[in-house]
User: What shape does this take?
Amino acid sequence: MNQESTAVLTDDSEVLLRQVHPSHEIQTNAGISSEAFVPSEDDRDLLSTLRGRVDPAEAYRRWTEDLSHESLGTYGVAVGEVEGAGLRAIDDEGSAGVADHASIDFTALASKGQQKKRGRKLRDAAIQRGCLHARPSL
Amino acid sequence: MGSDDAPAEDAEPTEPSDLQIDDATSDRMGASLEVESDDVESFAFFSLNGDRFEASGMPAETAREVGNFRDAVLQLAREAWLEANPGRQRVPNGFDEGFDLRLITVNPGSARPQMVLNRPASRQNDQDWDEWSQFYTFGRDRLTNFYGDRHLDDASSGAAAVGNRALAAIKRIGSSLGESESITVGAPGRDGNRSVVDRSVRDLLQSIDELLPSESVEVELEGFITEFDSAARSFRLRTSNGESLCRLESYNPSLATFVRSALALDGLNAPDVRVTGNTLDDNGRNLTVFNVRRIVLVRGLDEKLLLSQIQRAAGLGDGWLGPGSRAIAPATLVAARSVASDLRAVPGLSIVPSARGAVVFERRLGSRELSAAIEPNGQLFLCDDDTDTEDLWEDESDLDAARLVRFIKDGARE
Assistant: This one.
């Protein structure tokens, strides 16, 4: 990661936008697995989101149309909730090469269990807020 | 009814010299068929018997019995031709179409439809027509004789007397009749040989499929049941290759009960079962299976739902959740499937993919969120996250399916 092109986000009220894959829809835990909020090592332990200035519907469109990915819909996690989970949010538009990109940084966590726990906290916050833009009905 | 439209391998006319036709039949096949009504050469005697046939005409709903009769005679004629022509696989072109049976009137009394054999304007020469006419007539007489005591003493001799297609056609005769109604079939004329198809005969025929047939092969099909017809004792089984029609063996009410219990009420969600029966055409898809004698549960609905979640994960390729996400490796999927059956009864269990290529079993147990991941490197990762106390326990070890099951079922950490 190019540290020079990142900045820690400090506006606790900014809601970062995360797309949830349909395979993470489950029967319990209000319908979404915490895996939807856990990054992979290949993502350098950075959970991909878009900045809160992007409309949730536009975020969905970019993910599903521009990038041809699947999504249940756009969910949101506030920067303050990220910090409350012991994580930090960074603006990495430059290093990611994606407009309006932000990441939730899991790199400081020592174990997979810790990542899972923080992912669960982000999931709970997102569900508490509710889906910001749902996939259109088929 | 089957019909061979494909060209015959050879076309020279064949004398039915090897065919055993009795004298009475031979006489009737001579110069003309006997006259049953004025100016008409009737092909067969056919009478519907019962109160509802006393009025003039014939009830419309029983008209199909004439078609059933025609189908059965034609199948028997086809069999006879093939018997008389060893080495031939098909009847000649035009043989089926040549059996142009016409219904011209219904005589009063019992409903007695008058049928004549019309010679089509084309398709066959005189030599063919003369030959085929004899086989059609022989089919009629074989049908009449089939109903005689010799063949219906017991079901096995009945099954052996005719081929499977013919037997299926014969069994349809009388299917529209009531309990006390019957059909009399036979040769035309006062002295013609005749047989009565009454309820007892029909019941006996329905039992024959249990003993069918030397040509059939045993098949086992796996799928789920989408429809059940209790009157016909048949059900539809959706398999990976299509949909098969299955008919239960007679006198086995427990099978019918089982089928009813395993039926997909919504047409989609039902347990998988394995069905054992016989088929005449084992082409692997859309089979007709008869004499179904065994049905066993392969996997219940709970297990199927778990497997469907694994299958959903199996369809994900690299990059499914962005550039750094990985597809699930085949070995990981195999390992996940192997433990699914042991977890089928666990309430609230979900199976999801992780971006790192693991298959994760997740469950909430009280305030604890339990997750057990089969990792792409073959390791087992267990995580117990207490959402009330914030206590976190985690462990990674070689994959141990029994341990995974105990952890998800009971939260056991050992």
Observations:
- DSSP finds twelve helices and 17 strands in chain B.
